[in-house]
Design a protein that fits this description.
Elements: H1 3-7, H2 13-23, H3 27-39, H4 42-58, H5 67-74, H6 81-91, H7 101-113, H8 119-133, H9 137-150, H10 156-166
């Protein structure tokens, strides 16, 4: 399968699923997809990000060698929402090594508190922050305070995810 050719097509769920099946647990094929995400162009990278998030959901181990690169990608100025959304989505499915916690928490809180961010980016950020913070009561308190402040101004999706965190034991 020529991934660039496939990703240049109008993306649909059936095409996404075909590419995910093609990638499977194969780290070499996943590496091809990651190169597309990291090198662009943006339209193709957006499609790659969407597929990568589903590949990682099924095979979380595939993203481990690329964590520093995707965190660096998240810090890119004017990063398309589709890439931010799908990278934050994939971070929900992995155990983020402790050496990346501070960077991911900073990005997550930045996205969560920026009203210009899409609801999807904010909602995935809630989950990622909460997952990292479970063993850090001070971060959980900060997250819950921010969520309580934001809830009156947010959508149903945001409120639903926020309430799960607010009612959790940690």
């Amino acid at each position: 399968m020529n991934l660039i050719k496939e990703l240049n097509k109008p993306l649909s769920k059936p095409l996404r699923d075909d590419i995910i099946k093609y990638i499977g647990p194969d780290s070499r094929r996943f590496s091809e997809l990651m190169k597309i995400l990291l090198k662009g162009p943006n339209e193709v990278a957006k499609h790659a990000a969407w597929i990568i998030s589903y590949c990682v959901e099924q095979h979380p181990e595939l993203i481990q060698p690329y964590l520093s690169q995707i965190i660096r990608l998240l810090r890119t100025h004017n990063l398309p929402d589709a890439i931010k959304r799908n990278v934050m989505r994939l971070l929900q499915f992995i155990d983020i090594p402790e050496k990346f916690h501070a960077q991911v928490l900073a990005l997550g809180f930045q996205y969560l508190t920026d009203n210009r961010e899409s609801i999807a980016v904010q909602v995935f950020s809630i989950t990622v922050i909460h997952k990292i913070a479970r063993n850090h009561p001070e971060i959980i308190r900060e997250l819950k305070t921010i969520l309580q402040d934001l809830i009156p101004y947010k959508s149903a999706a945001f409120i639903s995810r926020a309430r799960r965190v607010l009612t959790s034991k940690n």
